[in-house]
Amino acid sequence: MSLAYTQERAGELIENANSIKNKVHNLSNGKTTLVCVSKLKPASDIQALYDAGYRHFGENYVQELIEKAKVLPKDIKWHFIGGLQTNKCKDLSKNITNLHVVETIDTIKKAKKLNDTRKQMISEDPSNFGKVGVCVQVNTSGEEQKSGCQPGDELDELIKVILEECDCLEFHGLMTIGSYGASHSEGLNPEFSLLAEVKEHVISKFNLSDIQISMGMSGDFVQAIKQGSTSVRVGSSIFGSRPPNNGH
Ligand SMILES: *Cc1c(COP(=O)(O)O)cnc(C)c1O
């Protein structure tokens, strides 16, 4: 996997990313993090943005992330944002020392698997491995095909387990993927409003000082920030459109 990039490609990526970063910064008074979503894009693209100062990158596929993390700088903060199968939690935990946050935890099983395998790595190699951040993915649209926990008892129980039984995980907050319909309508996005409400509920129920909410992509990050997003995940507006994801 080559990390070499052309000046032309770097210039294009940096111009795109800086323009998004400035919008994010201005809309949020510097409070919202921009995660550059690099799935299906070459490692050299990531290296180019890294060299321009970017550190937060998001990936959707476990094997692709492992391959990229192997060759790219170790101080990148990787966000895993893809659909996660329980049996892949171990691969994430074991292979990626600089796994910053897994944003798509939606079952107790996945949380425990991630925690247990990370605990093992920390005990084997404490100088390289540390705790992993997690967000709980919330299904705010009610669409059945969308993954994520339903707000209510299911969500509360999962967060309780993370906080009380997973000592190698750090609870960062909540994540949602907006439905196509809500992301393409004008005005307040009801799914983002719901996540902001759930955030307040979680803070008060578990007596937390503050938590993150990860919502907003290329098409709707401006609206998401207006509704309180602290982390936006932007891919195509930075890297251009993606190839069809054959093989995933
Ligand atoms: C691909 C993806 C993104 C980025 O989407 P763009 O529309 O390309 O900005 C954000 N979040 C998740 C969960 C994704 O899968």
From TrEMBL:
CDD domains: PLPDE_III_YBL036c_euk. Residues 13-243 form the Alanine racemase N-terminal domain. One of its GO terms (molecular function) is pyridoxal phosphate binding. Its cofactor is pyridoxal 5'-phosphate. It comes from Pichia kluyveri. Belongs to the pyridoxal phosphate-binding protein YggS/PROSC family. The keyword Cytoplasm does not apply. HAMAP family: PLP_homeostasis. Keywords: Pyridoxal phosphate. The modification N6-(pyridoxal phosphate)lysine is found at K39. PANTHER family: PROLINE SYNTHETASE CO-TRANSCRIBED BACTERIAL HOMOLOG PROTEIN, PYRIDOXAL PHOSPHATE HOMEOSTASIS PROTEIN. It comes from the Eukaryota. The keyword Plastid does not apply. This is Pyridoxal phosphate homeostasis protein. It holds the Pfam family Ala_racemase_N. Pyridoxal 5'-phosphate (PLP)-binding protein, which may be involved in intracellular homeostatic regulation of pyridoxal 5'-phosphate (PLP), the active form of vitamin B6.
